[in-house]
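Give me the fold.
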Amino acid sequence: MSLSRGRKDFVMKKLILLLGRICLSLIFVSSAVAKLFSWETTLHYMADGVARWASYTSVPDFVHHGVVFLGSHTFALLLVTTILEGLGGLCVLFGLKVRFGATLLLLFAIPVTAVMHAFWMMAGEERMLQMTMFMKNLSIIGGLLILAATSDDET
């Protein structure tokens, strides 16, 4: 008994989507788990990143105060980012509410990319490293946008 051409295409499409969701979500799920097991280290890293970004920018006062506020509430910020990464990543991984999961991951990825990988504010090797990280994140953001736009959120 063989599958019809249409059925084979359907199965292949579902398999490719599954593999794509696995590949796209693993970076977020593993990052959320790592944050849980290295909470204090991540708190310091995040606080340093926010402070570095604030020191590099000449933003208006209200934005500066917002950055200072975030820096002084690093624990809450880390908690929110861990939830966004974990819940969003699991939704995408398991194919449940994929559009919702992709949106959560976008809410995480866009500000993190702009703040933690602001290569345009750096020089030398650090600039090249952060530009590579920025471009990697930009590619992931593109994948999440495509996933959010094309997902059938029936489940």
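Helices lie at 5-37, 39-56, 61-72, 74-94, 98-116, 124-150.
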